[in-house]
Amino acid sequence: MIRTFLILLCLIESSIINALPFKNTKKYDFLKRKTRSTNGDIGCMHMAAEPGDYKFTSDGSGSVCGLYFISPPEDVIELQFLDFDISCESGLLALVDGWEMNEEFFPSPEDHELTLEERYQTFCNLRKPSKTIVVSQNVALIQHLITEAGQGFRVRVRFVKSPQPCNVVSSTETGIHTLKNFGSRRNCSVSIIYPETVKLDSVDVGVTPKHALMEADFGITNKCMTSNGVDFVEVMGGNSFELNKSNDRKGIVCGMKSNTGPLETIVACQNTVIRLVSSGNFYNTVTFSYRPPHGDEFARSNTAC
Prior knowledge:
Layout: H1 2-13, E1 34-35, E2 45-48, E3 52-57, E4 64-70, E5 75-85, E6 91-96, E7 99-101, E8 104-106, H2 116-119, E9 120-123, E10 133-134, E11 139-146, E12 152-161, E13 168-170, E14 175-180, E15 187-192, E16 196-205, E17 219-221, E18 225-226, E19 229-230, E20 232-238, E21 249-258, E22 264-267, E23 271-277, E24 285-291, H3 295-300
Parallel strand pairs: 1-2, 2-4, 13-15
Antiparallel strand pairs: 3-12, 4-11, 5-10, 5-12, 6-9, 6-11, 7-8, 14-24, 15-23, 16-21, 16-22, 16-24, 17-21, 18-19, 20-21, 20-23
């Protein structure tokens, strides 16, 4: 987990948060401090992987700061502001449903049920957050610019089980995960911020119909465009949050098979993504395992990042 924090903080350091609409602020001010505290008081840049209360008090430096939350994959994040004092004349707080770096979002705009405008809420003393806010996945972000010393906020964070997990950021290099669409028309993805070797252990995508009149085909194929819809699972790799669906795609399959054997993809990129695309005509499920590539696998990888 600590290594994950360090990698994520390096990614943050390579990004520029431009979303807060203030002039005369240095783009890299938010990089000056990053902390992980145990008593609830946090610095300008902070990674939080535990529920609890988090308090920020401005020192008046005018830095653009970020509080990044990540919970276990099966949870969503609930936030309640207990104290809030940010002058609208000189400060602003933005709550992001997901993560944002370099003006790129996870989950990507096309894979989220909300618009970017709905996912990005801004607050100050004239418009304080007055209710409990629950985000859509296991990551959330509070961006803030508070120029008046002594002002700040205190937020209580809870991790709540999600009835239908969809988009996830993984905090481990090794693991096993199952993506499901629960019969809905939606796209779900797992983002792993490491190079990975991904093995598709079980695939049921574009086969099990929601309606009995539809015929089911068995086996695995990469020909996933049918008259019943577009349903597939793809493995992608790149060095940003929002991956190009054509340039960054390393493999695509659909069909039904368990213990899929050689369906293994090596992604030698900074970000590995497993994405399930569903038309809503089928009950789709894919189970995959992932681990760091071995040295010889890096040499054999044909992925360009």
